[in-house]
Amino acid sequence: MLTRPLQYLGRSSVVRSEVPQIFFRNAGFLHPQWPPCFQMLNPSIVRSQFCWRTPSTLCGGLWTGPGPVRTAFNPYSMNQSSTFGSPGYPFKPNGNEPQAKRRKCERVNDEPPPTEAGQEQTDCVASHGKGLGNLCVSGELKGQGTISKKVELLNRRWEALTAQKKSGQKRNSKRAASRTQFDFSLMSYNILAQDLLEDNNHLYRHCSWPLLQWEFRFSNIFQELKQLDADILCLQEVQSNHYKKQLKPKLEALGYHCEYKMRTGDKRDGCAICFKRSKFSLLSAIPVEFYRPRIPLLDRDNVGLVLLLRPALSSGGAAPNICVANTHLLYNPRRGDIKLAQLAILMAEIGKAASSGKGEYCPIVFCGDLNSVPSSPLYNFIRDGKLLYDGLPIGKVSGQEESSRGQRLLSKPLWPENLGISSACQYEALNYQHINEGSDRPLKAVDSSEVSKDASNEKTSVVKMTSPILQHNFNLTSVYSHYVPESGRAEVTTCHSRSAITVDYIFYSTEEAVHGGLELLGRLTLLTEQDLRTVNCLPNECNSSDHLPLLAKFRLKL
After folding, report:
1. DSSP characters for 192-258?
2. Dist CA 97 CA 79 (whole Å)
3. Mean pLDDT of the region 331-347
4. In what helix (H) or strand (E) does residue 28 lie, and over which residues does it extend?
5. Where is the segment annotated Disordered (predicted)?
6. Which of 60, 18, 8 is CA-nearest to residue 35?
């Protein structure tokens, strides 16, 4: 007679344990002590793993369970408490816990993470020598006052990749070196537009809502940009009103010149490229829209941005231009055909901007959120310069779909002829120059100064797109290897409640590609999924985007 009413009362009396989710479920935890009167009334739930507060009316007065006094719940703390958690037992790990939980316990005890042997890495230091040890800053929430955050959550280190010269070899003086090389750093960062966060809040259930407010997030994001101090910023998911009122004025105050392209349609976010005026001057800015009316394949509102920059040399001499491209491709994992078409349009614009007019290209840096995983066909196309797409399952292009069952196969032509782009990902003039599909001859840059997206609306601009192979000749290499060498675990660039994968990239034209190519000097290391799960995924108290910023340093040989 009493079982069901007591169970109902018990459920109604469940309380938040206020114990951080950094604990071990051991034998003592699963069997809390209950007052004798409650055990006699309902012995069936004595061994429950839940944390119950016994109604005082059942025992004739208040009853306090074992353990320390619980503190008040702080919704802004990274150590989020659980509704069903520990009853407050003071216990110590016995050494048999899983590795992830041992690591959590170690971080609570302020023990530094172990250093992996053989790595030539330093503490998290920017490419310019500025420290990045703690990116947590004080944010302010309306009505909540100032929140002090002093816990370093992400152990990211600067990894120098330059080869050490032999001890007997002398370096040139700084003055001589400045005449033959130009160093610069570049960041790619998806900062998570607030509108998209609110439209997809199911991805961020791990994070308390006050931490997701834009006022709080912007403080953290801007502090990251300021401390990482990159010479070029390539940002995605930049909301237009936040860009105009907050981001652009603050970056301009730091000495940046900013260019922005908002998505088409009713979307309010877009891509931005910002560069230091002391390091570069702007030659041209090309906003790229992937939406094409009257072409059903290109009916999405994604965009890109291409800038042609001239390095500012202290010596006043001439230097090769640098082409920087930034984009955010379509997310839909099952529309690889759209992603390839968007990528082809962007590459055509890169080729037009970076062409030297002699069949060569100036150094190129191509980055962004490509919504594709490493080793996917789309990734391999960027890296290898060639892709046989005919017969490829449409959902396999980006590698986000594990199964290709029931998916449509790609067939040639991938896009209609009136788009005006060839299978070599170049804008073509009316006198189309056919390239033999089986030839190994390097592709030549085509003068496309008179060709634009408006060419797709003209009947006279017809280009045959009959090859089953997509090609480009940019000789691009990824800054990151996508795997941790010591453990073999995959690096990730985004991690939220649903997934943890790599979708963000920085590609650059290698030193052998053209005269005056780029050399990779170093990079800010990425993390694994396990690393990010231990800090409650992204965003969190100190990192206010669901993506990690990518940072690399390059050397341009003059």
Report:
1. --HHHHHHTGGGGTTS-GGGGSHHHHHHHHHHHHHHH--SEEEEEEEEHHHIIIIIHHHHHHTTEEE
2. 19
3. 98
4. helix 27-30
5. 84-121
6. 60
pLDDT, residue 426, reads 95
120 near 546, Cβ under 8 Å? no
Choose among 494, 475, 345: nearest CA to 416.
345
Reading the block at residue 227, the tokens are 């401390």
Q: What is the mean pLDDT of residues 93-104?
A: 50
Q: Which two tokens stand for residue 377?
A: 């066909």
DSSP string, 105-138: HHHHTTPPPPPPTT--EESSB-TTS-B-S-----
* pLDDT for res 150: 38
Domain with CATH 3.60.10.10 in the chain: 158-163+181-434+449-557
pLDDT tens column, 142-154:
444 433 343 346 8
Contact 382, 482 (CB under 8 A): no
| DSSP conformational letter for 310 | E
| CA nearest to 552, candidates 492, 504, 514, 513 | 504
For the ranges 262-276, 302-316, 364-378, 426-440, the lowest mean pLDDT is seen at: 426-440
Closest alpha carbon to 289 in 452, 507, 448 = 452
Q: At what angle do helices 377-384 and 336-354 cross, to 10 degrees?
A: 20
Tell me the average pLDDT of the chain: 76
pLDDT in tens, 475-495: 999 999 999 988 999 999 999
Q: Which two tokens stand for residue 175?
A: 């003055």
Spatial separation of the C-alpha atoms in residues 304 and 286, rounded to whole Å: 9
Please count the other Cβ atoms lying within 10 Å of the Cβ belonging to residue 503. 24
Q: Is 54 helix (H, G, I), strand (E, B) or coil?
A: coil
The pLDDT of residue 62 is 38
Region of 145 (left: φ > 0; alpha: ψ -120 to 50; beta: rest) is left
pLDDT the model gives residue 467? 87
HSE value, Cβ hemisphere, 13 Å, CA-based, for 46: 12
Tokens of 546: 């669901």
For residue 384, count other CB atoms closer than 10 A to its CB: 12
Instruction: Quickly name the fold that domain 158-163+181-434+449-557 has.
Output: Deoxyribonuclease I; Chain A (3.60.10)
Beta strand pairing status for 269-276 and 256-262?
A: antiparallel
What does the block give as tokens for 78?
Answer: 């990274």
Q: Which residues contact 12 (CB under 8 A, 6 or more apart)?
A: none
Structural contact between residues 505 and 550, judged by C-beta atoms closer than 8 angstroms: yes
174 Cβ contact list (under 8 Å, min separation 6): none
Which residues on neighbouring strands pair with residue 306, listed in sequence order?
286, 325
491, 492, 497, 498: CA torsion to nearest 10? -100
Lookup result for tokens 């407050």: 88
Q: Hunting for tokens 């703690």 — which residue is that? A: 134
Question: Any idea which of 19-23, 411-415, 476-480, 544-548 has the lowest mean pLDDT?
Answer: 19-23
CA triple 444-511-274, angle to 5 deg: 90
Percent of the chain with pLDDT over 70: 62
